Write the C-alpha cells for this entry.
Amino acid sequence: MLQNCEDMEEAGTAALAKVMLELQAAVKAKDIAEKERNSAEAKAAGDKARYDYNMAYEMEENEKQAILQKRHEEDMLEIRKELNQAKNDREKADIDEAHAIASQAMSADRIEALEKALALSTAKLNAVYAIGGIARSKDEKERDLRAEIQQMEQDKQDTGKEMSRMRLELLGLQRDKDRRKVDEPQSGQMSSSSRQGRRGGKGTRKGTGHFLEIIDEEEDDLPETRSLETWP
C-alpha cells in the first residue's frame, strides 16, 4: 500500500511537471503571438501613415497643378484676345491707309486732267482773241468756250462730290474706331500691345484728318476755280 502511494505521488509529480511544461509553452506562444500582433499593428500603422501622407501630397500637387493650368489658360485667353485686337487694329489701319492713298491718287489725277483741260481752253480763247477773220463770229466762239468751261465746272463739281463721299467714308471709319475704343475694356499689363495699337490708330486718324484738310485746300486752289471767277 505504501508502494502504491509512492507510485501515485510520482505519477502526480510527473503529471504536474508535464502541466508546467505545457503552461510554459502556452505562455511562450502567447508572448510570441502578442509580439507578432504588435509588430503587425505597428507595420499597419506605418503603412497607413505613409498612405495618408502620400494621398495628402498627391492632393496638394493636384491642386497646385490645377491652379497652374487655370492660370495658363487665362493667360492664353488674354494673349489670344490681345492678338485678335492687334490684328483688327492692323486691318483697320491698312484699310484707312488704302482709302487715303486711293483718294489722294484720284484727287491728283483729276486735278491734273482739269488743269490740262483748262490750259487747252485758255489757249483756244486766246486764239479767238488773236484771230479776227474767222468764219464764225466772236459771240459764237465765246459761246462754245463758255460751254466748254461750264462742262469743266460740272466736272469740278462731280470731283468735289466724289471727294466729299470719300471724306465721309473716312470719317465713318474714324467714328467706328472711336466707338470701338470707348467700348473696349481696359486690360492690365498684357494690354501693352493694344495700347500700342491704339496709339497707331490715333496716328492714322490724325493722318486721315490731315489728308481731308489737304483735299479741301486742293479744291479751293484748283486753277479752273480762279479762271471761272474772272470769266467776263
Observations:
- The chain has four helices and no strands.
- Residues 93-229 form one domain.
- Residues 2-130 form the longest helix (129 residues).
